[in-house]
């Protein structure tokens, strides 16, 4: 069977899987960005309870394997009467795991905003909430976007794991086709290529564009 | 199904889990050793003065870095037999992890080499040192401390990615948990124990790496004692 015949027969199935992969990617990215911002801010709180909660959360999710968390969400939570759909479990596990990594990036970004900005806001008698919202947060984006872009590419790769909790994504389809046809080179090769194309030609340029945009907003120009 | 945590069951399966933990540690160790060497090879490909080698090397690294480890594992495990090379799941897993993280480590090495100030190279040139002597006596001793934190992080990273090996049937910790859970149809205890074992191993490792990182920064004068 030629590769072209393989593509015409199984290509549409793989593309359907790709759509699911992209859905997981988008949902998990939104969740992880929100979690990163919240826990990154909590991590800098002066209140020991809030800060402690964030630290425990971050250490817990960074300390264990994503796959273990994923299986825990999918197979163990039903024991506690909380049954998640496979897709939801996948998105929540990935979002929470990457949120922990992202929170550390956000924390680093906030600390990296020049001290003069903090002092300026203080001198102008801004409330702490207003200072964060109007002065500090808008300035963290050029700092946090490059590491966050790396993390998002990692997230794309991590979405492959949801196939193991029966989400019908690209990896799942590739495995499925492999078990029917035993054309391993073709189906896993195609899957690898699709992931590469998503990352190289869509995700990375988009993130790069965001970086440039964020830098321009604060008056920096990067080429 | 009841949600109660059963201590008797947890204790019953604990020895089995701890035994499998040894396999996980072994897998992480071997995978890391391979990755360290593969990383050096990629670094070599990057620094050869032949343009075409650089380009091919960069594309390979880029490809491996932007595709999921899981599919790479399947690829190596299922495709090699088609070409008549039948390897055990262990060997396949180690090769794939070594290749995948080798690309990351090559970036760490590159960053470390670039972290050595340019003047050091120029001084060596001025003193007419050979390239080999420059690397061995001047550059590498300065680059190594810079690389330590990154290398440590990827050791923990590999450790946390070893559960993926269970998908091709390597009998490590996660594989044992799934097997035990499937046998007794109770997943609460096995998966929770796996999580706890991972935490107990990776948090001390992370603290240890952070300590080394601080010491390295101190030794290089990037931060001062009072800042700690």
Report the CATH topology name of chain A. Answer: MetI-like fold
What is the first-to-last residue Cα distance of chain B? 50 Å
CATH class of chain B: Mainly Alpha
How many separate domains make up the residues of chain A? 1
Low-pLDDT residue intervals, each spanning 5 or more residues of chain B: none
CATH architecture tag of chain B? Orthogonal Bundle
Oligomerization category of the chains in this entry = heterodimer
Percent helix among the residues of chain B?
A: over 70%
Structural class of chain B: mainly alpha
Principal-axes geometry of chain A comes out as flat
Count up the domains of chain B. 1
- Determine the fraction of residues in helical runs of chain A and give it as a percent range: over 70%
Describe the structure.
The complex is a heterodimer of chains A (223) and B (228). Helix content of chain A is 81%, strand content 0%. Chain A has 223 residues and is an all-alpha fold. Chain A has a single domain (3-217), classed as MetI-like fold, CATH 1.10.3720. Chain A is flat. In chain B, α3 (69-79) packs across α4 and α7 (173-184) runs antiparallel to α8. Helices cover 79% and strands 0% of the residues of chain B. Chain B is flat, with a radius of gyration of 22 Å. The model of chain B has no long low-confidence stretch (mean pLDDT 89). Chain B has a single domain (7-227), classed as MetI-like fold (Orthogonal Bundle), CATH 1.10.3720.10. The A-B interface holds A 59-60, 62-69, 71-72, 75-76, 78-81, 153, 156-161, 163-164, 171, 174-175, 178, 184-185, 188-189, 191-192, 195-196, 199-200, 204 and B 1-3, 62-63, 65-72, 74-75, 78-79, 82, 160-164, 167, 174, 178, 181, 187-188, 191-192, 194-195, 198-199, 202-203, 206.
